[in-house]
Amino acid sequence: MTKSKKPIFSSEFLDKIKKLLDIEEEKLKADLGQFAKPNPHVKDDYDTNYSEYGDDMEENAHEVSEYISNKPLELSLEKTLRDVHTAEDRLKKGTYGVCKYCDQPIDEKRLLARPTSSSCVSCKKTLTDEV
């Protein structure tokens, strides 16, 4: 990691990013709360609720179908929540906005569009073979 002597970004910019991350965290928790409950033993882990509609075959099929639909969404939202918390940790450590691959600053426009970004556009393109 880069050990710069002065901050890469202004404190106003970093405050704005912190607010964006806080908003995203609350939204993710609200979205997860609609169909899952927090796992008290594992940070940022939720358990998809298994609905109980009844005991007949059609109701059981509906329960399974709902669970199967919600589980991938739960996993995706949990990953995004972990990304938010990782970005918040980087803010606290003073390493926010530095590409984890090339140690160069990430463009402010990219960070505003995706505050959880941990790589610059150039490195991301290289990683996804978009070059």
Unreliable runs, pLDDT <50, ≥5 residues? Answer: 1-5
Count the E strands: 2
Rounded average pLDDT: 89
**How many whole angstroms does the radius of gyration measure?**
19 Å
In helices, the fraction of residues equals: 55-70%
Distance between the termini: 25 Å
Tell me what you see in this structure.
With 131 residues, this protein is mainly alpha-helical. The protein has a domain at 11-97. It has 4 helices and 2 strands; from the N terminus they run αββααα. It has helices at residues 11-33, 57-93, 108-113, 121-127, and strands at residues 36-38, 46-48. A two-stranded antiparallel ribbon has the order 1-2. Strand 1 (36-38) and strand 2 form a beta hairpin.
Strand and helix layout:
Elements: H1 11-33, E1 36-38, E2 46-48, H2 57-93, H3 108-113, H4 121-127
Antiparallel strand pairs: 1-2
Helix pairs in contact: 1-2
At a glance:
This protein is mainly alpha-helical and 131 residues long.
Task: Label this structure with key terms.
131 residues, mainly alpha, two-stranded antiparallel sheet, 2 strands
